[in-house]
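Practice problem: predict the structure.
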Amino acid sequence: MSVRRRPRRGRPGRFFVLEGLDGAGTTTQAQRLAAWLRAQGRRVHVTAEPSGGPVGALVRQVLTHRIGGTASAEGAAAPFDPHALALLFAADRLDHFAAEIGPRLAEGHDVVSDRYTLSSLAYQSLTCGDASWVEAVNGRAPAPDVTLFLEVSAATAVRRRFAASSRRELFEVPAFQRRVASSYRRALARLQELGQRVLVVDGERPVEEVTASLAEHLRPLL
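Answer:
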């Protein structure tokens, strides 16, 4: 089973996903894009992954180092298994769509999500070393109407994250982020092969210009 090719028809609302490296500005732009959509007279719901559901809460604890894997023979906590984490991300995604995204779309809301399947294809493909397996375990996640990728260099992303907070999550390591940047390019190409709509936006520009570019891309879809 592969990642879904195109969104199913019949959804009254539109499902938009913002993606990028940690520090690319996805959280900021999700809020700004929602404000723009509301200004067009649309009802909008903003969400994020990991979600606020029970599985998402567990994922967040792993990412913030609050829990690890099983104890080693010496009694020290081992790193959380990357395949187990990939499965948690996939499980959270299905629960997120069933409990929050899908119902909002059915009610006629546009949904703007800060991260979705592309993040797993980029991050977990690296940590698990098996892109096909990661794609397969995410195969039941419904496709968004469009994925908007905020492209920034790894150096820019790390600088922004360090400026925002001194706390580092699991994947916020400069060397790893450089590998993720390459992984994102491969994952974007894969989504395009599957027929999903993917748009790349220059995330290095000032915040207001990035929002304007996102709006320009989405206007024809409304």
